[in-house]
Design brief:
Elements (H helix, E strand, L loop, with lengths): L15 E8 L5 H9 L16 E7 L2 E7 L11 H13 L3 E7 L3 H14 L3 E6 L1 H6 L2 E3 L1 H8 L3 E3 L8 H12 L14 H14 L3 H6 L2 H10 L2 H10 L3 H19 L3 H20 E3 L8 H9 L4 H42 L4 H18 L2 H17 L1 H15 L7 H7 L3 H6 L7 H10 L8 H12 L4 H26 L20 H35 L4 H23 L4 H25 L1 H14 L5 H9 L6 H12 L3 H5 L5 H7 L5 H13 L4 H11 L3 H28 L4
Parallel strand pairs: 1-3, 1-4, 4-5, 5-7
Antiparallel strand pairs: 2-3, 6-8
The structure holds guanosine-5'-diphosphate and magnesium ion.
Guanosine-5'-diphosphate binds next to α1 and α4.
């Protein structure tokens, strides 16, 4: 086996064969795509993750194969964005082969889509995926026989392990070269429907140009199904459009009268009847496999309307607790390492700008963020686990009704939950919402969720100021983010976006034991992004912030400071000669220290950053923030992790040389020991961090998704005001009540 996964550039002289991977949601398209191309694409276990087409190329047997991973669909009607993307791709791009990825444990329903591809007139191969699971369930499929009945080749595969991929590739090549015929099939819909069908084909034929462009069999069926998109195409492109549409009308009402059902339903039933018949021929079930259906049993509990909600929030509670309690000691370990590194540098490098830059700017800034790697990693681990077991789809199902209470579409759950990792993909996944109002609304509230970048900030502050209940505080902020997002949605729905919520069908895949490889891929992808961001973006931000906070230096006061110190030094010498002078010496030493501290403080305030912080301080005083916090918040608009970097740098610069040389302590300890802060202020601060202005990457993706800057600007504005109001309320109320002081 050669050349799997080689990244290659296309050369003009080699023929490219284009292969589309389509199939029902969760049938394993992305897994198979990854196995075939050697890429690592996100494998999502609930619909809507793959709305974008993903493309991968490999060289195989002298040909270039280009794979496209299409979004999952059950059908090719044009009811959802996934269906439209898939159908348009197949119709317009005309791939050489469509591989229909089929979940073998659910053959009948999956074949429904397969038939539609055949009717569309494209060459199809059926990949009977999840063979392992089907065998476990005692389902045996005779793929040769199935192929003979349907007239297309079938190959058994296991997407997660990549087994069957050579066979699949060979078959695809043969189909593309015409060595195997994958029949474009017109299904037999029974005598009565057939005669109607041919009447429609006859009128469609009256425009030969139209006939060249579209498969008329398929168009005729779409006419019977009253397919909006197909009707539109006929209306705009067929030269006898009126006649055709009229004939369609007649046929549909004939069917309805004759069968007593909507014509779409009749057509659909015929397809299922055909499939059902085919399956009876080729599927053997192990006799006596009276397996208790695990999935059904668990679902009885998990999908309960009320219990389900408690279970969902309970599971998240556990995840946040575990993340915190397991991650925090690891974080502390890394923290000690960086502190040790700072100590080493302080000891071995001469005092000066360069040392300051390295110790305060780079290690204080980037190190401060890297410290939280274990916490972020564990959070992603928990989320991936939920996704891969199939639980997340259940959560969406239970939350559906709950979301309706707030005027949200059930599918909004997905973008919101993805935003718990990062709002950027969260906002992109809002594309699964077909109704533009639902989509805009979801995009507006997604950044209120606790994301992977706010996580370290909030985890650190919770650990420093609420040591007894840190895990609970951490989760509570996540929960608060949810409630807030939902309430804001309700408000917007009332004020700006009146409208009905459209219905939603949630696909429930069976529970699965996640594969180790799957979970690792998942977690690695996201956590590596965190480290990469620390090494690039956060690094650059830290350098800038260090510079802005360090300069200009108050040169005019240095001389005065030196003189004052020298005076104290000479006092110290004269006193040292006397007897019983310990107390006096201590006294003078204290004076010296506080002079140093005052200098460090003045330097910090004299720098550009310090001046800016003091300038905006009055605005946030109501929330209990001082100018140090204000600078951190301001810098955090670049990325929320930068809040930590900035605090680290502020504390680093604010230290005196003596403190520095006496050995560093961690940022968490510095915050904890700082008499300026108390739980009340920090709680207000955490709430502010959760809500205020989304980071730049999020704002940029909102602009990209919604096409205008007015949306991100509005978001930045409303979140800032909301954050201020809530933080100020929390601070002022707890002050009046006298708690957390
Ligand atoms: P998609 O929605 O069609 O792209 O499906 P995914 O590739 O995201 O797969 C859905 C889930 O099924 C994931 O948890 C995969 O790990 C799992 N999966 C995919 N193929 C197989 C397979 O052949 N056998 C088993 N047991 N699991 C699979
Ligand atoms: Mg996928």
């Amino acid at each position: 086996m050669r050349a799997f996964g080689n990244k290659i550039k296309i050369k003009e002289d080699v023929k490219t064969i284009r292969i589309a991977l389509a199939g029902n949601p969760n049938s394993g398209k992305t897994s198979l795509f990854n196995a075939l191309t050697g890429q690592v694409q996100h494998v999502g276990n609930y619909p809507g993750v793959t709305v974008e087409k993903k493309i991968g190329r490999i060289r195989y047997k002298g040909k270039i194969l280009e794979f496209v991973d299409l979004p999952g669909t059950y059908s090719l009607t044009a009811f959802s964005i996934e269906e439209i993307v898939t159908r348009d791709y197949v119709l317009q791009e005309k791939p050489d082969v469509v591989i229909d990825v089929i979940d073998s444990t659910n053959l009948e329903r999956n074949l429904y889509l397969c038939l539609q591809f055949q009717e569309l007139g494209v060459p199809v191969i059926g990949a009977l995926n999840m063979t392992d699971e089907a065998e476990n369930l005692g389902i045996h499929i005779d793929e040769k026989q199935l192929g003979r009945i349907l007239g297309i080749p079938f190959v058994k595969t296991i997407g997660t392990r990549g087994s069957g991929k050579e066979m699949l590739l060979d078959t695809a090549l043969q189909v593309a070269e015409g060595e195997i015929i994958s029949t474009a099939r017109h299904l037999n819909y029974g005598l009565e429907l057939e005669s109607q069908h041919y009447r429609l084909i006859d009128v469609l034929k009256t425009d030969p140009e139209f006939g060249k462009k579209y498969a008329l069999h398929w168009m005729a069926i779409k006419l019977m199904e009253n397919d909006r998109e197909a009707l539109k195409k006929i209306a705009s492109e067929h030269s006898n459009a009126d006649l055709v549409l009229q004939q369609g009308e007649i046929v549909r009402s004939w069917i309805e009268k004759h069968f007593g059902e909507d014509s779409e339903v009749v057509v659909c039933e015929q397809r299922y009847a055909y499939i059902h018949g085919a399956c009876r021929e080729v599927v053997k079930h192990d006799s006596g496999s009276e397996r208790i259906d695990f999935t059904e049993m668990v679902d009885k509990v998990v999908l309960n309307r009320y219990l389900g909600l408690i279970i969902f929030f309970g599971i998240m509670f556990l995840i946040y607790h575990l993340t915190f309690n397991l991650g925090n000691p690891l974080s502390d370990g890394i923290d000690r390492f960086f502190v040790w590194l700072q100590d080493v540098l302080v000891t071995f490098l001469p005092a000066g700008i360069f040392r300051d830059f390295l110790v305060e700017g780079i290690i204080g800034g980037v190190g401060g963020v890297l410290v939280f790697f274990p916490i972020v990693l564990l959070l992603f681990l928990g989320l991936s686990f939920l996704e891969d077991t199939g639980y997340m789809a259940r959560a969406a199902f239970v939350m559906d009704k709950f979301m309706h209470l707030f005027g949200l579409h059930g599918r909004s759950f997905i973008p919101m939950m993805v935003s718990t990792g990062c709002a950027v993909p969260g906002i992109m996944s809002a594309r699964t919402l077909v109704n533009p109002k639902d989509r805009v609304l979801t995009i507006f509230i997604s950044p209120l969720m606790m994301c992977g970048a706010k996580t370290p900030v909030i985890a650190m502050l919770a650990a420093a100021f609420f040591p007894e209940h840190a895990g609970t505080v951490f989760w509570s902020l996540w929960f608060f983010g949810w409630l807030l997002a939902l309430s804001i949605a309700k408000l917007f729905r009332h004020v700006i976006y009146r409208g009905e919520v459209s219905p939603f069908v949630m696909e429930l895949p069976p529970y699965r034991m996640p594969t180790i490889r799957g979970v690792i891929t998942h977690v690695w992808e996201k956590s590596w992004a965190y480290v990469k961001k620390a090494g690039t973006f956060i690094l650059a931000a830290s350098v800038i912030i260090w510079f802005v906070l360090s300069f200009p230096k108050p040169h005019h006061i240095y001389e005065q400071h030196e003189q004052a110190q020298q005076q104290l030094d000479s006092q110290l010498q004269s006193v040292a000669a006397e007897e019983n002078s310990e107390l006096l010496i201590q006294n003078i030493q204290d004076k010296k220290d506080s002079l140093d501290a005052a200098l460090a403080e003045r330097e910090l305030k004299y720098g550009m950053g310090g001046r800016f912080g003091q300038f905006i301080e009055p605005v946030f005083r109501t929330c209990g923030f001082d100018w140090r916090m204000d600078i951190a918040l301001f810098a955090g608009i670049a990325a929320k992790e930068v809040i930590i970097s900035t605090m680290g740098i502020v504390y680093g610069i604010g230290e005196t040389n003596v403190e520095r040389e006496n050995g560093n302590i961690t940022l968490k300890e510095k915050l904890e020991n700082d008499p300026r802060y108390n739980p009340r202020k920090i709680l207000a601060f955490m709430i502010f961090v959760l809500i205020y202005v989304p980071c730049m990457a999020t704002l940029a993706v909102v602009k990209k998704e919604l096409g205008s800057w007015k949306y991100p600007l509005f978001m930045a504005g409303y979140t800032l005001v909301l954050a201020w109001i809530l933080a100020a309320s929390v601070y002022q109320i707890s002050r009046v009540l006298g708690i957390g002081g």
